[in-house]
Amino acid sequence: MKSKYTYKIPFYLCNQNLHLRADGLLKLLVDASSRNTAEVEGDIEGYHWILYRWYINIYDKILSEDEIEIETYSRKIDRFFAYRNFYIYKSGVKILEADCKWLLVNDEGKIVRIFPELIEKYGQSEGFAMPKSEVKPLENYSKVQNIHIRKSDIDVNGHVNNSNYLQYIEDVINLENKSIKNLDLIYKKELKYVDQPKIHYSQNNNIFECAISTDNIHTIAKIELE
């Protein structure tokens, strides 16, 4: 089932130049996904979805007060993984396409195989597909910085909200009036309030790579700037 939702960009999701921040973008995409999920799943209980990977191409800036349309639908379901597409349109022109990868977990937090009832409800449609190969951490990063997790970063599941990882990244990335062209981000392990993570990062011209870690790697990202 394909759904399309209209949003007017609020200033509080934007940076000082009134450009939509990356974490603000993810908030909007997840909101559209949640609305579509509620429409499709109906009264199915005892399970919820967790994000594993984002792959996003951005073709134009989104500014405060812009009115956009977000289209989203299920692209593919493969045993334990569900792939969801997003397209953003501004004035009828496609300015973003994204593919994301989800896992289904039960109320005990165990990853489960996606069951036939859900597959039938969602259906599957062709669309924009992320690369099969996943971004890997570098052997060495040039810089490292501590991350302070705030109580406001924690969501209803008791973990750092997915969009807040982008806030941590945006705190160290050097945009210098550049904008994000491509984002490839993987969530390996949840961060909790008691964790004391670090962000290890390197930036070489228009390519920024990082890993957020404690004793384990929690998130890996590669960002291409333009």
Layout of strands and helices, then pairs:
Elements: E1 3-8, H1 22-41, E2 47-58, E3 67-78, E4 81-90, E5 93-106, E6 111-112, H2 116-122, E7 143-146, H3 164-170, E8 180-187, E9 198-204, E10 207-213, E11 217-225
Strand element count: 11
Structural class category: alpha+beta
Shape: globular
Largest β sheet strand count, sense and barrel closure: 11 strands, antiparallel
Q: What would the average pLDDT be, to the nearest integer?
A: 94
Rg over CA atoms, rounded to whole Å, is 17 Å
| Elements, N to C (H/E) | EHEEEEEHEHEEEE
For the record, the CATH architecture of the largest domain stands as: Roll
Family: Belongs to the acyl-ACP thioesterase family.
Protein name: Acyl-ACP thioesterase
GO molecular function, one term: acyl carrier activity
InterPro entries: Acyl-ACP_TE_C, Acyl-ACP_thioesterase_NHD, FATA/B, HotDog_dom_sf
Concise synopsis of the structure shown:
This protein has helices at residues 22-41, 116-122, 164-170, and strands at residues 3-8, 47-58, 67-78, 81-90, 93-106, 111-112, 143-146, 180-187, 198-204, 207-213, 217-225. The chain has 226 residues and is of the alpha+beta class.
Characterization of this structure:
Belongs to the acyl-ACP thioesterase family. This is Acyl-ACP thioesterase. This protein has 226 residues and is an alpha+beta fold. It folds into two domains: 3-122, Thiol Ester Dehydrase, Chain A, CATH 3.10.129.10; 143-225, Hotdog Thioesterase (Thiol Ester Dehydrase, Chain A, Roll), CATH 3.10.129. It is 15% helix and 40% strand. The protein is built from three helices and eleven strands. The protein has helices spanning 22-41, 116-122, 164-170; strands at 3-8, 47-58, 67-78, 81-90, 93-106, 111-112, 143-146, 180-187, 198-204, 207-213, 217-225. Strands 1, 2, 3, 4, 5, 6, 7, 8, 9, 10 and 11 form an eleven-stranded antiparallel β-sheet that branches. A hairpin with a 4-residue loop joins strand 5 (93-106) and strand 6 (111-112). The two termini are 34 Å apart.
